[in-house]
Amino acid sequence: xxxxxxxxxxxxxxxxxxxxxxxxxxxxxxxxxxxxxxxxxxxxxxxxxxxxxxxxxxxxxxxxxxxxxxxxxxxxxxxxxxxxxxxxxxxxxxxxxxxxxxxxxxxxxxxxxxxxxxxxxxxxxxxxxxxxxxxxxxxxxxxxxxxxxxxxxxxxxxxxxxxxxx
Length: 166
Prior knowledge:
alpha+beta, Alpha-Beta Plaits, elongated, four-stranded antiparallel beta sheet
């Protein structure tokens, strides 16, 4: 990003994170901008890649996806890396993929209907070329799960007295 976010941009982002369906006229009212000015700012935030999408947040359990698991995967070399990523991308049960340090080379977040479906998914992942090991952790509960990120300027201490990195 070429410029820091001003307070109005921050406010727009906070409001959108709280309600992705909020109308531009409501954003204008809450920020003191005109509706066209809100539209211009949103377009700029999209062009900068700060806003990448507008989505619904689903209750996976109500849709029958009762099991969430984190799977640490070790891929043996960069030779298999591109194929591994293609397989991850095409596997619908995998919600997220992160390159990591520590145990494994990647951490996958997966959602399945039940443990039988998870077992099939694990067998599928373990059959991929280059996958050496997997280590799976099944989630029992999720006391906090959010997509909201605190985006105010990073020029203050956290409430716990930590650093300025949130």
